[in-house]
Amino acid sequence: MAQNSIGHGPFSPEFHAASELVGRKWTGAIIYAIFNGKTRFAEIAAVIPGLSDRLLDERLKELVRHGILEKRSSEGEAKPGYHLTRKGLALRGVLIALYAWAINWPETE
Amino acid sequence: MAQNSIGHGPFSPEFHAASELVGRKWTGAIIYAIFNGKTRFAEIAAVIPGLSDRLLDERLKELVRHGILEKRSSEGEAKPGYHLTRKGLALRGVLIALYAWAINWPETE
Question: What local confidence, expressed as pLDDT, does residue A90 receive?
Fold first, then answer.
């Protein structure tokens, strides 16, 4: 199925799904926080002003379900935290490009 | 206001607004179609399967409002079409990165 739809390029279900996932409110900020080494729920919540615990929990579960995050203990961690998978790490370039665009072209209103 | 919040980086209102705008259903596909030289409403509709005229109209207006598209006649066009502004053209890198990620990391379910 994925193979067949690659031919549709940017109009493929894969592209729709990816842009909606990345565009969901708070998702970019959460991934950024984890890029910056915040792996625990409370740490992530602390660096994102305005994000409720309920929504953070929902977004984290969604990102785990989509294979972008995994909950595991890394070396030196007593309790499991959220870590980017290879699929999640690959999003770095997208978010950096989006962030640069947002800074260079702020909303004018 | 924009100046003050740049310091918040990826947790800034600018980043939230940009990721939500780009992530809105169909928006990436519409911008891609216009990158590919489809400037008229009917041409854009024809290359995006499943997108209703009502939603296309809504998204085009939204993109004009955000300064990403402008409706004007270009050389050789009898009627005005939708064209990317400089702000819109600057999104190219973001969408290409997102598209590459979507193709490399398709959903597994």
Answer: 94
Q: What's the total number of domains in chain B?
A: 1
Is A49 contained in some domain? yes
Domain that holds residue A61: 2-104
Would you give the DSSP letter of residue B70?
E
- A27 vs B contacts (CB less than 8 Å): 19
**pTM for the full predicted model:** 0.80
pLDDT range class, residue A4, cuts 50, 70, 90: very low
Residue A93 CB partners (closer than 8 Å, separation 6+): B97, B101
- The ranges of chain B with pLDDT < 50 are 1-7
Q: Which of B92, B48, B39 is CA-nearest to residue B70? A: B39
Measured between CB atoms, which of A21, A94, A106 is closest to B14? A106
Task: Give how far B5 is from chain A: nearest CA, Å.
Answer: 10
Report the CATH number at residue B84: 1.10.10.10
**Whole-complex ipTM:** 0.82
- Which H or E run contains B24? none
**Interface probe, candidates A94, A99, A104, A109, chain B, greatest B C-beta count within 10 A:** A94
Q: Which of B94, B25, B11 is nearest to A94 (CA)?
A: B94
CB-based contact A90 B101, cutoff 8 Å: yes
**Gap between the Cα atoms of B10 and A98, Å rounded:** 10
